[in-house]
Design goal:
The chain is mainly β. It has no helices and 11 strands.
């Protein structure tokens, strides 16, 4: 996944096997932009508490209900934490993007998640994949 910061480009860093605090990401802007059209096999490190803006085509539909879910990936070496997904709250919809904050939950540290956005409007429910993140 490619991350673009408001005000500049933030290079996506691939994590080597095994957790390390040395991979901490320092965003260069207030929000980091996780583009849904580039979601794929790359795993992007993010900090707990970091703000993200996720772009999806259907988010801007009038009256749309937008929900962001962070589902834990089954990655070898990562211990189960007792739940499989987290519904992110405190979101803000702006145009075709939803702004959220990575939860500051200690259990998520050094875990890989898939970020999905669900949009329900008059036409039904659709979703977009914002890729894989590793909470560092």
């Amino acid at each position: 996944m490619k991350l673009v910061s408001v005000g500049g480009v933030l290079t996506a860093v691939l994590l080597a096997a095994g957790p390390s605090a040395a991979h901490e990401v320092q965003p260069t802007g207030k929000y980091t932009y996780a583009t849904s059209d580039l979601a794929g096999a790359d795993v992007t490190p993010v900090n707990r508490g970091q703000s993200l803006a996720i772009a999806c085509e259907n988010i801007g539909a009038p009256g749309a209900d937008v929900r962001v879910v962070m589902a834990l990936d089954a990655v070898q070496g990562e211990e189960p934490i007792g739940y499989e997904a987290v519904l992110l709250t405190g979101q803000t919809v702006e145009g075709h993007a939803v702004r959220v904050r990575v939860p500051d939950v200690p259990d998520l540290l050094n875990h890989t998640v898939t970020l999905r956005v669900y949009i329900t409007d008059a036409k039904g429910t659709t979703s977009c994949n914002a890729g894989h993140l590793r909470i560092v």
